[in-house]
Amino acid sequence: MFTFDNTTIIASVVLILVAVLTSLLNPFFRRVGIVAYGLPSSTNESDDTSTEEEPEEEGKETIAELDDKAEEHPSLPPISIIFTPHDNAQELAKNLPLYLNQDYPTDFQVIVVAPQNDHETSDVLKRFASNTHLYTTFIPESSRYMSKKKLAITLGVKAAKYDWVLMADICCFPTGDNWLQALARNCQEGKELVVGYTRYEDETPDYRRFERHYLARYFMREYQHNRAYACPFNALVFRKNTFLQAEGFRGNLKYIRGEYDFMVNKYAKADNLTFENSPEGTLIEEAPTDKVWLGGHLFYMENRQHLERTTRHRLLPYIDQTALHGNYVLQCAALAVSYLLGMWTITAAAGLALILSLILRLTIGKKALRRFDLDIPAWKIIPYELAIAWKHLGYKLKYHRADKYDFISHKL
């Protein structure tokens, strides 16, 4: 029987209000801006048409042509790109040409720092030895007391010819020939760091693409509000002089992973970081294996204990997940109890509130994913949102069971 006394009306209104408000406590509802692509030049129209021309053969541009292009884009600085492959000869062979052949008006160099006895990588590098942009060096096998990845990056920075240095992962590939231009246009006076957006390739399982973007939205919002915490992406530009003066990775050298996180956490101050997430400035990361996927979560759980501002960063995701689960628990409990007690007005309100929650979250989530070209079916959004907290709990249990010496280079 439907009743409309004060208690029933208040309970019904509360259920509907909770459904609406908790749907807005959602990273998809908080808008993340997408940077428009436009090179720092007075001839934007010519920039647009240049992408339609046939690319010139490697090494065919004359010095005069390079000088003309540099005059068209005077604010693009020379830049050094560092790769530190480790057992990635196949990815190096496939992706290195995409970086060497970037359409960049100013000079740039690609530095590859590889393990000394990695013969497969050496064979790949020999095939590109004639390219004037490429410089190779090797790290000794005897390094034991610091992360080899961080050592390789440090050696690459010291070898860099230019003050602006870009570190990226060779397992990623750029979306086009203007990727370097899109990142480098942010290398302006007063800036020290440029973070480049990265997403998984389309062949990656839907849940992994969803989770990465869902969590990355918290970092992107922090960048755009000058509160940078860490870096879940695979492209980072920084100044060589700043890196060397602050002694690079000092303070976290023993941690095997987390180079991007430690860099941003240490060097990001106030508004000295710029975030580039235009389609042209995006890197595509190859689908991770199960081992890589799990390792990424476990290493992050270790590294975040040694980062500053961790509590502030984790607060908002905690609130969002509490609101998400709390709303569903409240609506389902109200639905069940009111049905058993024959309180049909509250039953109807609880049912309406539950449907409203689903519709709002599906609509908000699908719109946000579409803006970043993530083609994930709308019906998967609700279970994927719920799964994040439970999968995180599973990773946390595995982390607590793991040997903590697996996360550091000091094997005592």
Describe what this molecule looks like in 3D.
- The chain is α/β, with parallel strands linked by helices and 412 residues long.
- The chain folds into 2 domains: 6-30 and 312-407; 44-49 and 69-307, Spore Coat Polysaccharide Biosynthesis Protein SpsA, Chain A.
- Helix content is 49%, strand content 11%.
- It has 14 helices and 10 strands.
- The chain has helices spanning 6-24, 44-50, 63-72, 89-100, 119-127, 148-159, 179-184, 206-224, 240-245, 259-267, 290-303, 310-340, 344-371, 381-401; strands at 79-83, 108-115, 134-139, 164-168, 172-174, 193-196, 198-200, 235-239, 273-276, 283-285.
- A 7-stranded mixed β-sheet has the order 3-2-1-4-8-6-9, with helices on both faces. The chain has a 3-stranded mixed β-sheet with strand order 5-10-7.
- Helix 5 links the parallel strand 2 (108-115) and strand 3.
- Helix 12 (310-340) runs antiparallel to helix 13.
- InterPro entries: Glyco_trans_2-like, Glycosyltransf_2, Nucleotide-diphossugar_trans.
Can you summarize this structure?
The protein has helices at residues 6-24, 44-50, 63-72, 89-100, 119-127, 148-159, 179-184, 206-224, 240-245, 259-267, 290-303, 310-340, 344-371, 381-401; strands spanning 79-83, 108-115, 134-139, 164-168, 172-174, 193-196, 198-200, 235-239, 273-276, 283-285.
List the helices and strands and how they pair.
Elements (H helix, E strand, L loop, with lengths): L5 H19 L19 H7 L12 H10 L6 E5 L5 H12 L7 E8 L3 H9 L6 E6 L8 H12 L4 E5 L3 E3 L4 H6 L8 E4 L1 E3 L5 H19 L10 E5 H6 L13 H9 L5 E4 L6 E3 L4 H14 L6 H31 L3 H28 L9 H21 L11
Parallel strand pairs: 1-2, 1-4, 2-3, 6-9, 7-10
Antiparallel strand pairs: 4-8, 5-10, 6-8
